[in-house]
Amino acid sequence: MTPAPAGPFPRGSRTLGLGLAALAGAAFLGAAAIHRGPEPLPMPAMAERPVILPDGRALFVQKHEVSVAEWNACHAAGACTLALRAPAGADPAAIPATGLSYVDIGEYLGWIRAGTRHDLRLPTMVEWTHMAAPVLPAKPGPIFTDPALTWASTYLTEGTAPRALKPQGSFAVTAEGIADLDGSVWEWTQDCYAGASDGVAADRCPAFWVGGEHVAAMSWLVRDPARGGCAVGTPPAHLGMRLVTDDAPPAGRDTSPRPVLPLVMRRGRTSNRYGQTPISTAEPSPANGRLKPGHSNVAGVSASRVGSPYPTKYVS
Amino acid sequence: MTKFVNPGLVPTSRRNVLRGSMLAGAAAMTGAAALATPRRAPIPAPRMPAAQFVKAEAEAQSRAIPADLAGYTRVRQEMVDPPFAPAHDQVATGGPKIVEVFMETHERLMVVDEDTGASIWALTYNGSVPGPLIVVHEGDMVELTLRNPVESMMEHNIDFHASTGALGGGGLTHIYPGEETVLRWKATKPGVFTYHCAPGGAMIPYHVCHGMNGAVMVLPRDGLKDPAGNPLRYDRIAYVGEQDYYLPRDANGDFRTFDAAGDDYADSLDAMRTLTPTHSVFNGAVGALTGENALRAKVGETVLFVHNQANRDTRPHLIGGHGDFVWETGSFGDAPQTGLETWFIRGGSAGAAMYTFEQPGVYAYVNHNLIEAALLGATAHVVVDGDWNNQLMEQVVAPRSFEA
Predict the structure, then answer these.
(1) What is the per-residue pLDDT for A143?
(2) Dist CA B79 CA B92 (whole Å)
(3) A138 burial level (CB within 10 Å; 0-12, 13-18, 19+)
(4) Closest CA to A261 of A288, A277, A241, A281
(5) In this complex, is the C-beta atom of A251 within 8 Å of any C-beta atom belonging to chain B?
(6) Is there a domain that residue B34 lies in?
(7) What is the CATH number of the domain that holds B317?
(8) Lowest mean pLDDT among A201-215, A264-278, B302-316
C-alpha cells in the first residue's frame, strides 16, 4: 500500500502547492522583517473586567488557568520542557495545564512574555486572595485554639475542595469573569515562603505560596503535591497557573506594534544552585539551565522595567 | 460516623457469559489475550480445590460427631463499617457464645484516588475495603452467613486465618451469585487475624488485591494484658485495612477504566505480576482516613490500632507517638512488646498496637515506607483534642534567622 501524501494537497498538485506555500512564507517573512519581527503570540483570554485591588490599581487576570493546549504551544516552540497531555477523551484546550512546578512555570512565563510582548506575570498572594475571596468558602474557625497548636489548627478546615481535575469553567466565576478560582487546581503565586526568614531572594526561595481553596506553601520543585506523609494538612490536588498583568491587554485583535521589552540573554546567574529560576515582577528571568542554545528570544526578560507599578520584596 | 469516600457506586451489570464462574471466563480470556497481545504472560490455570476434595470434606463432616453446642448462647453481632469496631465487651461476660454475623459480597466501582480518577471494581465484604471487623472472645464460635447477591459477576468465599480446618473455611463457603452459605468455626486462638476471599488459583490474589479482605479480633476472655499480666483497656478501636492495588494503565500511563467487575482480570494479573503496587491505601482509597474522615481521639484516651494487611508487608508508625503495647504478629497469646517506634505487619496477617495519647494535635499514622505513605496513599490522620504538655515538648525558639 502506498502511503498517502501527508500534506493538504491532493496527489499531483503537491509540487505546485509546496511552491505556493514557500512563496507565501517568503512574503510573510519579508513583511515581518521589514516591520517588526515575528508575529507576536496572541494574548491569552483575559477576564471581561479587571480586578480592582484595595489600593485602586486595576489588575487584568486570565479568565481561565493556562490550558494544556496553551502549554503545549510553548513546548512545541521548544521553550517548555514538559509536554502535557489531557486526560483521555478531554479537550486539551479546555483542560487546565497541571503537574507544573515553579521551575516549569518559569519556562512558560518567559515564553509567553517574550511572545506576546506583554508584561504578563504571576499574581502576588495578596492579589490572588483578593480576586478569589468572593468565590472561596468562608473560613471555618480553627479546630485548636491553644497557641501551642497553631501548626495543627487549620486541619479539617482545609480539604473541602473537589480534587478531580475538571474542564475550565466547571467551578465558580467571579463578578469580573474569572473562572475556577475555587476549583481543584492550585495556582502558583510569585510570593516566596521561607519560614521566618524574610527577604529571601527569589532565586534562593525554597517555597512559594499557591492559591486555592486553602492557601498552601509549596516547594518550588513539586509538580504533584501528594497527600499524606508528615504534613498535617490536605495538600493541593493539582498545580497550575493563571497569569495577570498590570497593563491593559490590547482590546480585540490589536495588531499595532507594541513597545517591545528589551530581551536580554542572561549568561550569568540565571538560576540558583538548583537550577531554579526566579519568577517575580522585579526579576523575571525565566531562562534556566535546561534552555537549549538558540532560544535567546525566550530567555530572560529584562529585570528593570522602569515604573514597575509595585516592587516585590525579593529584588535580588 | 459512617462515611465512605467512594461515591462512585455503580451497580454490577450482570453478564450472561458468567453464571458465577469467572474461572471459565478467565480461561477463555487467556486464549483471547494470547492472540491479541502476544507478549502477555500466560495466566496460570486456576487451581481450585478438586471437587472430590470438597466432597470428601463434606462427607467427613457428615460422618463426624455433631458439634456440641450445649452451653453456648447465641448472640448477633451487627457489622459496622471500618474504621469502627462492632459493639463488644473487652472482657467476656457469661459463658461462651455463638456470635452470628452476616456478610454480603459486593462488587462495586470505587474511586481509589480522586485526584487522578483512578478507580477499581472492588470486590468487597459488605461494600467496604477492608471488610468489617468481627470481634469475639476466645472459646466463642463465629457463625457467618455469607451471601453472594444474584447481581454479582463472580463467585466468592472466605478463608479465616483465625479458624481451624478446610482452608480456613474457604473449601466450605464457595458460593456463586444468588447463593448463600453458613459457616461456624470456633475461635481457639486469641489475637487479630486476617480473613480474605480465596476462590482458587490466580483468583486468590486477584480478589485479595481488589479489596476482599478484613480482620477478626479474638480477645482473651479476661481481656488484654500487659507483659506483667495487668489488664489493658482501650477507649476506642481504629481498624485500619491497608490495601495494595495494582491498577492497569493504558499506553499513555493513565489508569484504565472498566465496565464491570472482572473486566480487568487479565490486565490486573499483568500489573500484579510486577509486585509493584500502584496504590497502597488505608481503608480503600487515598485520603479515606484523612481530612474530614480523620480518626478522632482525646488526650488521655487509649486507642487500639488494628492493622490488617492480607497480602503485603507493611510497617505502621504513629508520627509523634508510639506503640505503647504492640502485638506485632497479632497473637494475644504472646506478651505485647512495649514502647515501639515502628512495628511490622507481615503480609497475610493483622497486628495490634495500643497507644494512649499524651499530646493534642494532628498525628499521622503511616506505613513508614514513606514512599508508600506519601506517594501511594498509606496515610491516616488522628486529630487529638486536649491540652498541650510543655514538659514533653516545647518550642523553645521559634524558627528565626540566625544572621539577624
Answers:
(1) 72
(2) 19
(3) exposed
(4) A281
(5) no
(6) no
(7) 2.60.40.420
(8) A264-278
Which distant-in-sequence residues (6+ apart) come within 8 Å of A144 by Cβ?
A: A150, A152, A153, B360, B361, B385
Q: A196 and B401 in contact by Cβ < 8 A?
A: yes
**Any domain includes B244:** yes
C-beta neighbour count of B90 within 10 angstroms? 16
Binary contact (B387, A146; C-beta < 8 A): yes
Q: Residue B221 and residue B218: Cα distance in Å, rounded?
A: 9
CB contact set of B11 (below 8 Å; sequence gap of 6+): B151
Residue ranges covered by each domain of chain A: 41-310
Residues A14 and A27: their CA atoms lie apart, in Å, by 20
Q: How far apart are CA B130 and CA A212, in angstroms?
A: 33
pTM of the predicted model over 0.95: no
Question: Over the stretch B259-296, which tens digit does the pLDDT of each residue have?
Answer: 999 999 999 999 999 999 999 999 999 999 998 889 99
The answer to whether residue B404 is domain-embedded is no
CATH number of the structural domain A41-310: 3.90.1580
Closest-CA residue in chain B for A158? B291
> Quick count: other Cβ atoms within 10 Å of Cβ A293?
5
Which of these is catalytic: B317, B322, B329, B379? B317
Range of the domain at B290: 237-385
Separation CA B289–CA B196 (nearest Å): 22
Please give the distance of CA B47 from its chain centroid, rounded to a whole number. Answer: 24
- pLDDT score of B291: 85
B207 is known as an active-site residue: yes
Whether omega for the bond prior to residue A259 falls within 30 degrees of 0, making it cis, is no
Q: Does A65 touch chain B (CB under 8 A)?
A: no
Quick one: three-class SS letters along chain A?
CCCCCCCCCCCCCHHHHHHHHHHHHHHHHHHHHHHCCCCCCCCCCECCCCEECCCCCEEEEECCCCEHHHHHHHHHCCCCCCCCCCCCCCCCCCCECCCCCHHHHHHHHHHHHHHHCCCEECCCHHHHHHHHHHHCCCCCCCCCCCHHHHHHCCCCCCCCCCCCCCCCCCCCECCCCCECCCCCEEEEEEEEECCCCCCCCHHHCCEEEEECCCCEEEECCCCCCCCCCCCCCCCCCEEECCCEECCCCCCCCCCCCCCCCCECCCCCCCCCCCCCCCCCCCCCCCCCCCCCCCCHHHCCECCCCCCCCCCCCCCC
3-state secondary structure B245-297: ECCCECCCCCECCCCCCCCCHHHHHHHHHCCCCCEEEECCCCCCCCHHHCEEE
Flag whether residue A89 sits within 8 Å of chain B, measured between CB atoms.
no
Do A244 and A61 contact (CB within 8 A), yes or no?
Answer: yes
The total number of structural domains in chain B stands at 1
Q: Check if the beta carbon of residue B150 is closer than 8 Å to that of residue B14.
A: yes
Is the residue at B342 inside a domain? yes
Q: Is the ipTM of this complex over 0.85?
A: no
